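Supplementary Methods. Inverse-folding protocol.

Structures were first reduced to a discrete structure-token string of length 165. This string, shown here, constituted the complete conditioning input.
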């Protein structure tokens, strides 16, 4: 059980077992982006320093609380996508996708759909002699994601193309 869930005072059980506090999702995403040599996800927006309000007894929320919650949500979604891209286990990938779907972020696998450059990124083509397949997505190379109606990442797909003669 995590130290932050204990009901007894930490000092009574083990004085060295003190929680280190909580880190906001924005801070975690910034740490990951910095480690990968990318720009901070909050670049171009005001940096968020404070952690999320964890007081469950508070019933008042204001615009700042909503903005913080939305920023934390976006950072957590980006962190999950980062983890999905690096997951080696199919079970982990499935669990992350299921969890994201629970909050309205769905995976985009347009296999069999008509290729649309507005929502798909072509990663390659596979030749076909069947005119009915021409222009359809043969397979998804990299899964895309959408947060409700907003595309977070376009899927990278292989498209059926007419076989050169």
């Amino acid at each position: 059980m995590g130290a932050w869930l204990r009901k007894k005072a930490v000092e009574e059980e083990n004085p060295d077992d003190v929680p280190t506090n909580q880190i906001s999702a924005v801070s975690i995403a910034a740490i990951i982006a910095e480690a990968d040599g990318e720009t901070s996800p909050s670049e171009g927006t005001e940096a968020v320093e404070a952690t999320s309000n964890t007081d469950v007894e508070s019933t008042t929320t204001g615009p700042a609380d909503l903005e913080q919650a939305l920023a934390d949500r976006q950072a957590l979604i980006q962190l999950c996508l980062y983890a999905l891209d690096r997951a080696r286990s199919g079970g982990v990938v499935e669990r992350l996708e299921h969890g994201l779907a629970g909050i309205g972020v769905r995976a985009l696998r347009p296999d069999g759909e008509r290729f649309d450059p507005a929502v798909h990124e072509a990663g390659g083509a596979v030749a076909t002699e069947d005119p009915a397949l021409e222009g359809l997505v043969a397979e998804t190379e990299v899964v895309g994601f959408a947060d409700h109606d907003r595309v977070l990442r376009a899927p990278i797909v292989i498209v059926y193309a007419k076989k050169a003669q």
